[in-house]
Specification:
Blueprint: E1 2-4, E2 10-12, E3 16-17, H1 29-41, E4 45-47, H2 55-65, E5 73-78, H3 85-99, E6 106-109, H4 117-129, E7 136-139, H5 143-152, E8 159-163, H6 171-180, E9 183-187, H7 208-217, H8 221-232, E10 235-236, H9 243-248, H10 259-266, H11 278-286
Parallel strand pairs: 3-4, 4-5, 5-6, 6-7, 7-8, 8-9, 9-10
Antiparallel strand pairs: 1-2
Length: about 290
């Protein structure tokens, strides 16, 4: 399945998240093999970030998988410490060199740094105009952050990558993005990873109502959640290192959730996410360094 971005570029769905594969900031042949396996299974949308520390592994996987570059949609992101006009340009060059790709499909500002939003976005627009990247967007941006971008932007962000799962749907941000033609990309769509310390029983994949729907369709709870994303028009980017789950997460076209089933999932929203609020994340993120 593909979603058309506001600049006419097609984004494949679902994507494949690469954060913390084989451990936080792991960058190895093992990591590359997991990603190459995902490409071999049919994933065409690969999501990484400079702070993940695995851009070299993503690039290596792309080269070893043998899939034509133009058939892949490669995303990376600039970390908080890399924001600012000149800093974004340098950060992009470093990411591109680590990935060893001639161009990127989508480049994102990973988290908002409010004081630097407009100058960072000017740099993003420059990268787009120079055709170093096919689309530009943001991640974890609130309505206030998006308004700040749009106040002086010549290019509207192509997407906003935010935490979305049945327990946390961010309706206000989603509605604002819809009015601006900004595509929603949902990270942690199945609930955050084991590294977060969130217990499995507290994640939506173990919710009794979702399990009930899964049994009815003879599919996994993860497939229910990912299909729910797609039917809402969001692009989910699940992450798994287990081949059977990776394959299941791609098999979303053989069933459809009813309106009643969609409503069941919608009603699970608690208003509280698993990840940090952008306001709380700024100080913590600035203390984290991007590995060279």
């Amino acid at each position: 399945m593909e979603f058309l971005l506001n600049n006419g570029i097609e984004m494949p769905a679902p994507g494949f998240g690469t954060g913390a594969i084989r451990g936080w900031q792991a960058d190895s042949d093992e990591v590359a093999q997991v990603i190459a396996t995902a490409i071999g299974m049919g994933y065409r949308h690969l999501d990484t970030a400079s702070i993940y520390g695995n851009e070299r592994s993503v690039g290596k996987a792309i080269r070893s998988a043998g899939q034509p570059r133009e058939q892949l949609f490669v995303v990376t992101k600039a970390w908080n410490t890399e924001h600012g006009y000149d800093q974004i340009l340098h950060a992009f060059d470093h990411s591109q060199r680590r990935l060893d790709l001639e161009y990127l499909d989508l480049y994102l500002l990973h988290w908002p740094v409010p004081s630097l939003i407009q100058e960072s976005w000017r740099a993003m627009e420059r990268l787009l105009s120079e055709r170093k990247v096919r689309a530009i967007g943001v991640s974890n941006y609130r309505i206030s952050d998006l308004r700040c971008v749009l106040e002086r932007a010549e290019v509207v962000p192509a997407c906003n990558q935010i935490e979305i799962h049945p327990y946390f749907t961010q309706p206000e941000v989603r509605e604002f993005c819809k009015t601006q033609g900004i595509q929603i990309v949902s990270y942690s769509p199945l609930g955050t990873g084991s590294w977060s310390g969130v217990l499995n029983e507290n994640k939506p994949v173990t919710d009794p109502l979702i399990i009930q729907i899964a049994k009815r369709h003879r599919i996994s709870p993860a497939q229910v959640i990912l299909r729910w994303n797609l039917q809402h028009g969001w692009v989910p980017i699940p992450k798994s290192e287990h081949p059977d789950r990776m394959e299941q997460n791609l098999e979303l076209g053989e069933f459809t959730l009813s309106e009643a089933e969609m409503s069941v999932l919608d009603d699970l929203d608690t208003g509280t996410g698993f990840n940090m609020d952008p306001e709380d994340a700024i100080e913590a993120n600035m203390a984290m360094s991007v590995p060279e």
